[in-house]
Amino acid sequence: MVKIAFLKDETFILIALALKISRTPFEKGSIDKLYKECLADRQGSREFANRVMSKFRHLIPGDFLDYAITLEDISRFAAIYLWRNVSAPNQIFGAGLETSFRRISPVSYTGTLGSFGKMTFKSYEEALGLEVPREDAKYILAEGALTRMIFFAPPRYLLKLADILKSTLLPELKEIGEKFDLLVKQKFHLKMHKERILSKWKFWTTKPTNQGIKLSGQGTLETISLDMTTRASLSTLADLVRQRQMLCNIESLQGITRKRTFVIPSSFPEETGEIYRELAKKAIQEQRKRIKKRDPSFVYFLLLGQEARVDIYGKGAGVIGISNARTSGAAHWEIRNKIGIPITRALAKYEFLLNQIGPRCWWQKKCTEPKDTKAMCKAFAQAKGRWKGTLEQLLQILDEPYGTFTI
């Protein structure tokens, strides 16, 4: 069961808490413990929040409020489902952080997974033991792995999210939606009319769509419009929907199962690849068995590496923001390959945008990534952050292999 709490405090305390939630291993304490640590040293919390925001150019905390909702033991699936609805084009504002599986290993999973959950965790640890990067090893995990998050939104948007979540078939999402609804009534004493929801992530149906990218504009940044369809792992799509600037219509969850396709990182040694394929077979079997019964809990058996189609819609500065954030050498290889580089190449056709798109080493002529991420970038190793070649040459260096297999 998801543990949901409402916190009200000075914004810098909640920013410090959010950063701790994102960066602290699960075994080092609950959200409540992390919150008490922030309260015990308020000045230290203020300095910590500002230091991290400055060092990592972390701007999202600037959207945080003086109250927040925390969710502990929320499934990875429920977290991505919630985030998928939050975007400017979908007319739902929100911000927050969750524990990063790129850096922190999960320690528990929903009971629905049973022995399959234990199997995924064992395989995940074996992959880490073979020196597979944590950000790639997580592809082996199931969406039923438990995480934690903190979320900020004005009452209007909390209620819109509540209506979406309550309308789903999954008990976990319904519970979160009902709690959001109750918190708004109790904490803000507001009763508001329901609003029409523009877009929701569907559980059923298998409508196919062709891949492609369309970009239009009339010579100014404000007129740029993106309409893109691609495929990527659920892990990468989770990173994309947290960007909040574009609407990401991920195909129906049943459709993901139907395709039976999985993204395989090039960092996987042969042994890990074989284990991953066996897990994928079992995952598909479990998903199909539950789909046959119209049981929505099949979503917990989706692997983070399972591939899904996504339709991406964006406008203006939001499209440029994706190019900047997701094309850099510090970005994860898959989101760079499937999202950042294709969008940047499409934008490069507009000459007036050339000094605004791509990673900073291109348009600012210097690298501003933190020292611990510079080593991840092939372009930095070659140019030390002062790129002097063409944009296309830079994109070619940043491009990496993308492989899949189908069960």
Task: Characterise this structure.
The protein has a domain at about 5-190: 2-Layer Sandwich (Gyrase A, domain 2), CATH 3.30.1360. The longest helix is centred in the C-terminal third of the chain and has 23 residues, at about 270-290. A 4-stranded antiparallel beta sheet has the order 1-2-4-3, with helices on both faces. A 4-stranded antiparallel beta sheet has the order 5-6-9-7. Strands 8-10 form a two-stranded antiparallel ribbon. The chain is an alpha+beta fold and about 400 residues long. The chain has helices spanning about 10-25, 30-40, 40-55, 75-85, 115-130, 135, 155-165, 170-190, 235-240, 255-260, 270-290, 315-325, 335-345, 360-365, 370-375, 380-385, 390-400; strands at about 5-10, 65-75, 95-100, 145-150, 210-215, 225-235, 245-250, 260-265, 305-315, 405. Helix 1 (about 10-25) packs across helix 3 and helix 12 (about 315-325) packs across helix 13 (about 335-345). It is built from 17 helices and 10 strands. The chain is globular and about 55 Å long.
What is the strand arrangement across the widest sheet?
A: 1-2-4-3
In which range does the helix fraction lie? Answer: 40-55%
Gyration radius from CA atoms, angstroms: 21 Å
Top-tier CATH class of the domain at 3-188: Alpha Beta
Number of helices: 17
The secondary-structure class comes to alpha+beta
CATH architecture classification of the domain at 3-188: 2-Layer Sandwich
Q: What do the pLDDT scores average to?
A: 92
Anisotropy-based shape: globular
The main β sheet shows up as: 4 strands, antiparallel
Q: Predict the CATH topology of the domain at 3-188.
A: Gyrase A, domain 2
H-E string:
EHHHEHEHHEHHEEHEHEHEHHHHHHE
Terminal residue distance: 32 Å
Low-pLDDT sequence parts: none
* Number of E-state strands: 10
Residues in β-strands, percent: 5-15%
